[in-house]
C-alpha cells in the first residue's frame, strides 16, 4: 500500500494535496500542528470517499523537542512519501521581530523538516521507491523585503533538497521542492486587499494560484514514473518572480 504523510495537511495547500493524493490511491497520515478537529474531519471525509485506503490524523507541533520528534516518527506505520506543506511567516522588518519569532520561523520551516527527514530515512529507503517533497516559495529564489527570515528558510530548503538528493538517489528516493508564488490561502490574508490586487497585477497569469495548482505538481512528483527528477526546485508561480 502506498502511504504518505502530509505535514501541514489542514492548511489550504495541504488540504488540496490530501485530496489529490487520495484520488491517486495513496493512504495518508493527515498531520496538524494544532487544529486536531480539522485533521480528523479531513481524514473522515477521505475515508468515506476512499474506503479501501487508510487516512489517519496525527498531531505534532513543529516547535517540539528532539525526543518528541523521535517518538512521533517511531509511532508511524511505514511510509514511502513525505510531503512538507507546513509553514509560517511574519511580515515584518528583521529588527522588529523578536528573537523567539526568528527561531520559530526557522524551526518550523527548515530545521524540523530536516530533522524529520533524517529520522524517516531508514524507513523510506527500504521501499522500491520513495519520495520527499517540500513546499518552498518563490521567495526562496528571490528574497522578499519584510519576509527576510521566511525567505531564508525557503532558500535553505532548496539547497538542502539539492544536496540531500545526491545522498539518497541510489536508494530510489527522490527529493524535490515545489515553490509556489502567491497562493489564495490564509497565509496571504494578512495583506490588505489593495496590496493583493497589486500582486495580481504583477503576475503574468493574471491571478493568484489555488491550492490545486500546487497539489498537481506534488502528486506528479510522487508518481512512480518521476524517478529521474530529483534535487530540483519547481517554481509554480504563474510567471511571477522567475
Secondary-structure map with pairings?
Blueprint: E1 3-7, H1 12-23, E2 27-32, H2 36-49, E3 55-59, H3 66-74, E4 81-84, H4 99-124, E5 130-135, H5 148-168, E6 173-180, H6 193-202, H7 211-222, E7 233-236
Parallel strand pairs: 1-2, 1-4, 2-3, 4-5, 5-6, 6-7
Protein name: SDR family NAD(P)-dependent oxidoreductase
InterPro entries: NAD(P)-bd_dom_sf, Sc_DH/Rdtase_CS, SDR, SDR_fam
Pfam families: adh_short
Task: Briefly note the structural class of the backbone.
Answer: alpha/beta
Number of helices: 7
Q: What is the overall silhouette?
A: globular
Low-confidence runs of at least 5 consecutive residues: none
The level-1 CATH class: Alpha Beta
Distance between the termini: 38 Å
Helix content: 40-55%
What name does CATH use for the topology? Rossmann fold
> How many distinct domains?
1
Strands ordered across the widest β-sheet: 3-2-1-4-5-6-7
Q: Outline the biggest β-sheet.
A: 7 strands, parallel
